[in-house]
């Protein structure tokens, strides 16, 4: 099997379209699109700069629009394909200290769910999988500390990768990692906010980014 690599700034719409065209000409149509680019600043809202907020939204959210616009039409025309959206548990339930990141992931989940429904209306064979992990040990969230960390562990990238491949092969629509975190999403729809805050305080969830460093301190961390 031959692999091809391309360099592209996914925040630049025209560059995405240009590279996408090169891929189609040099390799062929793309039938599996994995939207995985992401950055995190790890700062309280009051400490974020305008530029950091814009960058987070450009990389984590707007890039999904550009790659989908570049590749989804061909999938629909050929009536085959798979869109994989790497979201986050933080796109289901927000935490303090990651306001820009959570906002970007909530938006990505909304975009993904809307695309899935549009494919359903078209009776298209294009499948959609959204992945919602709590955390992956890539260094992106280095320094984050939770009380009782065994309850919400950071997972090895290899484990997450295998689960994503399995989800694609089985046309799984939503993949929570670890699987039991789906219970937290369900609990959010039942418990009042006051109860949620009490539970979050037990593991110091909203204070976890106080020791955040990421890969390089004081600069946004990019994950591709």
Automatic annotation (TrEMBL):
It comes from the Eukaryota. It holds the Pfam family adh_short. It is a multi-pass membrane protein. Keywords: Lipid metabolism, Membrane, NADP, Oxidoreductase, Transmembrane, Transmembrane helix. SUPFAM superfamilies: NAD(P)-binding Rossmann-fold domains. GO terms for cellular component: lipid droplet; membrane. Belongs to the short-chain dehydrogenases/reductases (SDR) family. This is Short-chain dehydrogenase/reductase 3.
């Amino acid at each position: 099997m031959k692999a091809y690599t391309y360099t592209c700034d996914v925040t630049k719409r025209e560059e995405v379209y240009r590279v996408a065209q090169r891929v189609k000409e040099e390799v062929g149509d793309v039938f599996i699109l994995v939207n995985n680019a992401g950055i995190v600043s790890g700062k309280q809202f009051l400490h974020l700069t305008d530029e950091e907020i814009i960058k987070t939204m450009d990389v984590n959210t707007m890039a999904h629009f550009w790659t989908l616009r570049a590749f989804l039409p061909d999938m629909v025309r050929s009536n085959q394909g798979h869109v994989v959206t790497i979201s986050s548990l933080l796109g289901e339930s927000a935490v303090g200290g990651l306001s820009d990141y959570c906002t970007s992931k909530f938006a990505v989940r909304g975009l993904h769910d809307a695309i899935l429904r549009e494919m359903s209306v078209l009776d298209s064979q294009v499948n959609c999988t959204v992945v919602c992990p709590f955390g992956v040990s890539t260094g992106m969230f280095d320094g984050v500390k939770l009380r009782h960390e065994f309850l919400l562990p950071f997972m090895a990238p290899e484990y997450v990768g295998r689960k994503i491949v399995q989800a694609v092969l089985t046309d799984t629509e939503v993949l929570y990692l670890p699987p039991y975190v789906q219970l937290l999403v369900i609990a959010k729809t039942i418990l009042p906010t006051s109860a949620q805050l009490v539970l979050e305080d037990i593991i110091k969830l909203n204070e976890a980014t106080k020791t955040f460093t990421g890969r390089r301190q004081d600069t946004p961390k990019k994950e591709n």
